[in-house]
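S1.2 Input.
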Amino acid sequence: MTIEKRVLELIKGPILALGYSDVAVTYKKEMGTFYLRVMIDKEEVISLEEIIAVNDLVSPLLDKADLIQNEYVLDVTSFGAEKPIKVECLEKYVGKYVHLHLSHPCKGENILEGDLDEVNSDIVKLSFRVKTRLVKVEIPRKDIDDARLAIKF
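S1.3 Output.
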């Protein structure tokens, strides 16, 4: 079992008990330093105080379990402004600006970014701009491979 999986197994329950909806863990070496990143998510915006509280919860659990032999930096963070979205949960994001990766092209494109107008069990309706023109499309939900929130410029 990888370090990430062992750490996730240890901390996921206590973090979810605080009301978070998702937890992910990465462990990698960057510029000579090992980083253990714990990413948390929930519906509402996550404050700095919440990040600190999760850090204060996780740190002693990791110290006690002693799963990682190397020195590392613990980095607790949110998934960020472009957090991934589970395709089965798209309904929660109607009205948001999203990035969709498609398995079958729509209007000749495999990647679309736009406003999520409507979602039902079979179809996702998206509005996006091509230059100054607003285009509205219906995408079969089964054709969406990957989704995330996006930043609108």
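S1.4 Remarks. The chain has two domains: 3-78, 84-149.
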